[in-house]
Design goal:
Blueprint (H helix, E strand, L loop, with lengths): L6 E3 L2 H12 L4 H15 L8 E7 L3 E7 L31 H9 L7 H15 L6 H14 L7 H11 L9 H5 L4 E4 L1 E6 L2 E5 L12 E6 L4 E7 L6 E3 L4 E3 L25 E6 L4 E6 L16 H8 L6 E7 L2 E7 L1
Antiparallel strand pairs: 1-7, 2-3, 2-8, 3-4, 5-6, 6-11, 7-8, 9-10, 11-12, 12-13, 13-14
Helix pairs in contact: 1-2, 1-4, 2-4, 4-5
Length: 336
Amino acid sequence: MSGPSKTIASDPVVAEVAEASIAEGGSAVDAVLGGFLAAAALEPGVLFGPVGALVAGIGAGARVFDGRTVQAGQGAKRPRGLRPGDAVPRPARAAVPRSLGVLPLLHAYGATKTLAALGRLGRTRAKKELKDDPSLEARLKFLDAYARRGPGVLASGDVVRPLVQRAGPVAGGLLTEDDLSAVRPADEAAVFAPFSADTELAAAPWAPPEAGRPARIVVAADVGGIVAALAYAPDPDGIDVPELGLRLTRDGEPIRRGVPRVTPGEIRPAALPIAVLRRQDGWHTAVGVTSAGRLEGPSPDEATTVGAWLEGWLTGGAVGLGATTHKRRVTVTRAD
């Protein structure tokens, strides 16, 4: 691989695959998708977790892609609920993934390679890195099926059955077949706000939660003037579905007696701290922070570099990543 890097990620293997995706003629969107699919092949908790992306650039506006998980329980009667002091069964916290539907939306916004081609590098790396992982074979089989069928793979019986068995009513959870067939990801215009005298910040229109699992980030920029940022938040202690080699996240809310239930299908909060900075001269930077807190900008008065902006967003133990495109030049930045 030659030339300056055009991508950067919190995981070095994800960064390597993202860079390879763009080096083979892909766009910034190809890069973040390739990186995410590599992460999904390497770890069981990535694919079914919350994911969000933001794409912006010259002639492209700025768009947010919302793949956060949703509350389970559609099409089912409300159970009696847990009494005060009852232990919460792990399946009762399982959330419904929307990632499989949001990836094609993001892909349609500037990718040049198929999702199958973008996922191939990650699957190859997973086979090399995880030879002794007992869940790998099932996970790669699922990813292959997803590459062929898209989000419709969730409707197949050999996928629905293990998911409902592991997180449905019989297991003490809320997940139903209706949940899996009703998933509807979304994309919408980003919200712009003034950041400094000549710079705007574009971010997701929803309010970030006060806390959450630490996010992982991949950002990319291309010489065509497009930048992309993608954040995902796997749950290392979620609900395993060994038949698929995957893991559901514990983002759902259990039903408790005397407490209003969270409406099935309601989006669950997730800390996905990504944004885009832009100037009128075509300068765009995709930024992300690998922390669980809010993404809040510093005072811009003295922040004259991307690194200074990133440092202003950091909390304890966090890392800031940025990818900039301007006048057909691309740079990446990391701030600890």
